[in-house]
Each structure stands twice: as structure tokens, then as C-alpha cells.
Design a protein that fits this description.
The structure is a homodimer. The first copy, chain A, is α/β, with parallel strands linked by helices. Chain A has 15 helices and twelve strands. Helices cover 43% and strands 14% of the residues of chain A. The termini of chain A are far apart.
Chain lengths: 457, 457
């Protein structure tokens, strides 16, 4: 069996859904031309290390450090790993956990978990959730990984103050370092205002560095994602190999060979000519549901930009990413997708082989209405529903891209994440925006401090 | 403190965000006129019992049955309650669980859970998830509540066959009825093809009835939602009282007094005149996150409709509902909401009082960058971020409706759900579609059976 994910764009072509909603050969030709020149720019940026995400998987020193650190903390036998982080500091590792650890992982016994800790990702400041976590995770049995590239993220800092207070009381100041790992940007010297660097020095704690040329939403293959992955016993080498495999495919400039560019082209035409304001990511697999959530940030924050065209006019660009889940959302969103406005470009992800097919037993043979289920498997039902949805969408003239996973493994999930990163970088060029900044959210930080009663800072 | 949720539409008015993106006094006047006549139609429908959801809270006999049944099953001391259901059979009760049970509920000890069972909602047919559930929930310690109004839902039936097989092996056929509660439509006689009625007879199991005039997405206050709620020890009387309180407000036809109609009017103008193709529901509360998910189905499936205008022309209507979570999604979606296309109408929900404010300790006083956090509370930070987001959206000219919860309780959550149901019924009239059907998804069922290899049925 091939280890490669397969991307099929035929359902998004005009031959499938007509020229008003599908990409025509002319569209593809024109996109290929734009992509040809943008590829050169991005390749140059990569060479100059302006965008570090492309080459993270080659950083063997960091990988070794991650593995060694994880092994050394594993000796303490922690019951819990708690990640303090939000946005890009949380979504990538959450996607990896959902994809690669068993369902209901935190409910399993230590033995069933392979001796690895439970995982709690604190990506909000809901006081009820946070205090519930503090009760569930006694500090002495817990490793806290605090993640913030700037070190100054309000949500993460407030969490950290609570955790440090609890840790100092429980284990004493000198032992805090046995329960704390910091992941943040590099130090620019002793006067660096990054609060996490202060914390690192105050407790002599281990710190991982997020490279300055890698933004939060592109950071899953830095220690931001890799260290929790290693602590939970995931196949980090498989992740790295998956990145390498996809990078090899993404070095081609041709849309036929480069799935990231093919997807970028279709999303660009969808946005630009076909009125597809929404990009839906719909995995038919519980394990992949948080890959869709990770994509939501990547796509929204990278492309949702105001662009000044001249002194007075501006354009607002960006597709709204939507996470859906097959088959669950067939009973929630599909009515809208089939009959509502044809304003969506839908990516359907399917999985060829689940861990267990789960045969449906031939119980109650006299009961009608279930003949087609008995003796089949739940995996087959999942795949039949996926095919049915793709078929019905095509019949209704709605464009669909299919992404097929031979299996959900570290290797295939990393391919998907890496592909979407390359796609997003290219889409930024096509949409004419900077895919790597997020200027608008600064205003929220200012207002939040104001409402917290802070005047001076 | 008032027990009422408060709805504030000022942020969606032209006085806040201008006439291109906000609702003008003229818009409101025109909507009020349309709503005035639609109100008469809906009131007549209600009186004729065409739409049963309005009066469910008055059904004392069902409530008594639900409570008595829950009490009788509680005596068995089940460790787990497993709901088999999808779409409207799962989303309402999931919203109630997230809102009203403590965070990480399934990780708590039996004592911490107040003696109530853990809860697993099986709303997908992912074989890996389902087999993990079967391992975690030994049949002899588990009560299964299978929910399907038609009784023929493929996903739910396939799950049920697996469960019945496991139950028969574990406890014997005669005792299956001690582990099974069926919730389905009423019987139309011995020849009713509803498979769940066959199962009910085969095991002599308890069955609750979903009234025929209540669709799945409007069924949370039938035994679909109420029985699991009662099994988990929720305040079902509070839910009923919350419905009654909101019904009293929704009997007014004036937009100033009826929050459901005010919201319907704004969403209608948003859709019709302001180009708001997307309706975002963004609670600043982990507890309310699945209320937003429940709303996704209600809004999408009710309004996402093709409408034949005459023999040849048709229009496609329906706003795409999007679930977001504050503050988490500030670090994921807000860049897009602030600078991307102004195609969204955003509802922000805030909670005045959390269970615990969670004071932020004054640890590490020498560390800079956190002065505004120390000595404050996490609840205050949550609320400051909520205000900051609403403020920034207004500055950016994006329309916002605010919904404020004094506290998250059975009473307030029920008000919210009931309000959204009334709003949706009215929106159906304004959008000119039947809010109570879902014709398009039938095609999926046909195709699924085809792909499962079923020819005859």
C-alpha cells in the first residue's frame, strides 16, 4: 500500500460541475502561469530563510533535543502533560493528538496509554475549565509545557501565573524546573522583554526555541508540536518523514505533480471567479477532525486580509474556512451544502483503512430496514456515506476536492499538514496578501489591556 | 440578579456600523411589518399543532415519565450512559451536557459526578471511535439510549446492532431491557416499518415517543434531550421553566420585546440586503460551545433551501452558520473577521458570572509584561477579551448581536435554545422557505444504500 495521501481535483472541475462553479482548463492554465512566477518568489524566500516552515523537518539537532528532553522527563512518570498555549501554540498539537492517539485517550489506564501521560491543552481562559484542570492535574504529577512565541500572550501568561503558584506550593521553587518546559522565541539578550525568558531564568527551566522565521500557525513541526508529540510517544520520525515526502512532491511547479499548488489554484479560482467565499474541510474520520480545526486558523489568519489598492480604495480578501465532520454533519450541514447558496468549495477527506473495520453483527435477522447493514462493516458504511456525499454534491453542481488517506499515521498526517502550509504560502501570493502576518488582532490586545484597567503599559 | 438572558442588537444597527452593514430604522420598520403578518401564520400553526416545539414544555405527563424512568434506571447504578443518535438526536443533549455538567465530566470520579453515569454520545460511525467506546463501556455497566425519530437512520441502526449483540452476550437476551431505552416516533400499528419499534417489542424495552409534529432539530425538549438530562441529574425543571420564560417573551410581536423576532429581523436584513452570507455564533464560555454547534444544525438545515420561484427559476437561500469560541478563536478567526470580507453577522455570547472567578496570583512580581493580570481574575480577563472583540468588530464596521447570560444554568440555557427555535421558525417565513423539512439529504440515504451494495430496498 502506498503511504502517500492522494488528492483528486476532478470534482472541482468544470467537466464535473459546469463552468460557473468548476475550474475550467483555461482557469488552470492561467493559474499555472501565476503559480509559475510565484513559485520563483517563494523558492527565493525559502532560500533566504524568510519563511522557515519549509525546512523545519531537516533540523536534526532540534529533533534530537526534543527526543532527549522527552525521554528525560518521561523518567519522572508524569500522569499529566498540560499544554498552556492558544492559537498556533495549541492547534497543531491538538490535531496530532486526535489523529495519532487512540480515541478517548485520557480515559484510558496508564497501561493502555503505553505509560504516557494524559494530555490537557489549555487554549482558553474559561475560569471554570481551568480550575477543573487544576483539580484533575495535581502539580506534583504534572508536566506543564507553556508555549508562546512572543512570550507575552495574555491568555497564556495568566494561566502560567496560576500554574507557577500551584507548582511552588506543591513542589517548592527549586523543583519547579522538573515540571516546566518553556517553548518560546529566541532570546535577544538579557534585556529581552519576553516574560517567558524571565521565567526560564527564574526557575532554570528547560526552554525550546521557536525559530523567528516561523509564525505560530506554521509551527507544528517545531518543538511547539514536536515536544508534546514526543512526550505522548508519537512517531515523531514518521512526522518528519511525512514532511520530507510532501516536500519532494511540492518542489514541482506543475499543478499535476504538486498537490499543494493544485489546491491553491482551485481555491484561488474559487475565490476570484466562482464566488466561493467559504472553504469547507470535511474529514470522514474522527481522528482527522482537528486537522480541520488547525486548517481553520491557517487559512483564515493567513488570507483574511485587508489590502490597500491605492491611497483610498481597498479590498477585503479571505475565504472563511469551515470545519465539518463526516458523517455527523451530513445530519446538520449537508442540506445547506446541497441546496443553499453555491458559495462553498468543499474538501472531503476519506480514510481507506481504519484501525478496525468493526463488523456489524447479524443480530435480529427478522427486523426489516437493516439488511444492507448486517454482515457489512462500520468502516464500509463510513466510506459508502463519504462516496454518497461526494456524489450528491457533484449532482448538485457543488465543487469538491477529495483527499484520500491510505491510513491515518504520523506519516500521512504530516503530509497533509505540510501540504496545507505550502498551499497557504502559495495562496497568499495568488490572493495578493501577506500570508505570514496578522495585523488586525493587535487591536484586541490593546483593548483587552484597557478593559483590564491597565493604563500605563 | 435577573435570570433572563439579555439580547442587545445595537452593534448590528446602522448607527453603529453604517447603513451598508447595519440595520437601519427603515429596515426594522419593514421587517416588523413582515413579522407582524408572519406572526399570525405561525400562531395559527401553533394553535393547530402543526409545529409542536412551542408547547413541549407544557407536557407534564412526559416530564413525569422522563423523571420516573430516569429514577428507576438510576437504581441500577450504571457507570455509563451511551446515546446512540446523530444530528438532532445528539446535538441538543450534547449542548446541555457541555453547558450544565462540570468540565471534564467523564474524567471525574463517580462521587464527583454526584453518582451519575459518564456520558458518551455516539454521533458518528467511525469504527475506531465506536470500538473504543465499546471497550470503555462494558455492556453490563452501561445504559444505552438509542434515539431516531424515523427509527431507520443507517448510522444509528448500525450502532444499535453492535450494541445489541454485545448486550445479548453480556447480560442475556431477557435482561437487555434493563440496559436499553428507545426514543423514537409513535407507532402507527403492528405493521409500522420503524425498526426501533421492532426492537422495542423484541426486548420489551422502555420507549419514549418523539411527537410527530416535532422535527429532530427542534426536539431537545422532548425525551430526546430530557431523558439523558434527567439520567445525568440535570435540573430538568429549570429547563422547562426557561422555556416558559422565553415563550412569554416571544409571544409579543414587537421587535423591542421579542428577542427571537429581533434576531430574525436582523438576520433577514443581513441576508437580504447586507450580503451577510455567514452567521457566526461565538460564545465566550467553554460551557456554551456546543450550544453554538446545536445552532449550526438548526440554522443550516432549516434555512438552507432551494426555492422554486416559477417553472424555471429558483433561488438558493440560507446563511452558513459558523461556530467560533471566545477567546480561543481570537487567535484563529478574528483576523479574518476584522479584515476579511464583511460578509458575517456575528453573535457574541458572554457570561456575567462563572462558577469560580479564579484569582490570578501575584507570583514573580519582578517579571514584566503581566502587571495588568496579577491580582485580577481569569473571569475578568475573559470578559475583557469579549468586550475588546466586540469593540474591535464595531470599529471595523462589522455587525454584532450580543447575548448576555447572567450565569450558565438550566434556566438560561433553555431560554437560549427556545429563543433560537422561535427565531428559526420566524426566519423560515422571512426567507420564504419551509424551515421544517430537509429534502436534500434523502438523496444521500439512497446513494449510501447503493454504495453498500443494497439493490432491492
Amino acid at each position: 500500500m502506498s503511504l502517500d495521501i492522494r488528492i483528486n481535483i476532478s470534482g472541482a472541475k468544470s467537466s464535473a460541475v459546469g463552468p460557473d462553479h468548476g475550474v475550467t482548463p483555461l482557469d488552470l492554465k492561467e493559474s499555472a502561469r501565476l503559480i509559475g512566477s510565484a513559485h520563483g518568489v517563494l523558492a527565493e524566500d525559502r532560500k533566504r530563510k524568510r519563511h522557515g516552515f519549509y525546512d523545519l523537518y531537516k533540523d536534526k539537532a532540534t529533533l534530537t533535543d526534543v527526543k532527549r528532553t522527552a525521554a528525560s522527563f518521561a523518567r519522572f512518570g508524569f500522569e499529566n502533560l498540560v499544554v498552556l498555549g492558544i492559537g498556533g501554540s495549541a492547534l497543531g498539537m491538538t490535531a496530532l493528538v486526535s489523529a495519532l492517539k487512540p480515541p478517548y485517550y485520557n480515559l484510558l489506564s496508564r497501561e493502555q496509554r503505553g505509560g504516557h501521560p494524559r494530555i490537557f491543552v489549555m487554549d482558553n481562559v474559561d475560569p471554570d475549565t481551568f480550575s477543573a484542570m487544576l483539580k484533575l492535574c495535581p502539580p506534583e504529577k504534572t508536566l506543564f509545557n507553556v508555549i508562546s512565541k512572543s512570550g507575552g500572550t495574555a491568555e497564556t501568561l495568566s494561566q502560567l501565573l496560576l500554574v507557577l503558584d500551584a507548582l511552588e506550593s506543591a513542589v517548592g521553587k527549586a523543583r519547579v524546573k522538573n515540571h516546566l518546559v518553556i517553548t518560546t522565541g529566541p532570546s535577544t539578550g538579557r534585556k529581552d522583554p519576553n516574560p517567558l525568558l524571565f521565567v526560564q531564568r527564574a526557575y532554570d527551566a528547560k526552554a525550546f526555541v521557536v525559530p523567528p522565521n516561523v509564525g505560530g500557525r506554521f509551527s507544528v513541526f517545531t518543538p511547539v508540536g514536536l515536544f508534546p508529540a514526543a512526550m505522548l510517544g508519537m512517531d515523531v520520525d514518521g512526522l518528519i518523514a511525512g514532511c520530507a515526502a510532501m516536500d519532494a512532491r511540492c518542489k514541482h511547479v506543475s499543478l499535476a505533480e504538486n498537490p499543494a499548488y493544485a489546491r491553491a489554484a482551485i481555491h484561488y479560482v474559487g475565490w476570484n471567479r466562482l464566488g466561493k467565499a467559504i472553504s469547507v474541510m470535511m474529514p470522514y474520520s474522527d481522528a482527522l477532525r482537528d486537522v480541520a480545526d488547525w486548517y481553520r486558523q491557517l487559512w483564515a489568519e493567513s488570507l483574511g486580509k485587508q489590502r490597500i489598492l491605492d491611497g483610498r480604495a481597498w479590498s477585503e480578501s479571505g475565504q472563511t474556512p469551515v470545519k465539518a465532520l463526516g458523517v455527523t454533519d451530513q445530519h446538520s450541514q449537508l442540506q445547506l451544502y446541497l441546496e443553499g447558496p453555491n458559495d462553498k468549495l468543499i474538501t472531503i477527506m476519506d480514510v481507506k483503512q481504519f484501525r478496525e473495520p468493526l463488523p456489524i453483527p447479524k443480530v435480529l435477522p427478522e427486523m426489516g430496514g437493516a439488511e444492507y447493514l448486517r454482515g457489512s462493516t462500520m468502516a464500509k458504511l463510513m466510506n459508502a456515506e463519504c462516496k454518497a456525499t461526494a456524489g450528491a454534491l457533484r449532482e448538485a453542481g457543488r465543487p469538491v476536492i477529495s483527499v484520500s488517506f491510505p491510513k491515518v499515521t504520523a506519516h500521512t498526517v504530516a503530509q497533509m499538514l505540510y501540504m496545507l502550509e505550502v498551499e497557504t504560502a502559495m495562496a497568499g501570493r495568488l490572493f495578493g496578501v501577506d500570508a505570514f502576518d496578522q495585523p488586525a488582532v493587535e487591536r484586541i490586545k490593546v483593548l483587552t489591556r484597557e478593559f483590564m484597567g491597565q493604563k500605563g503599559e
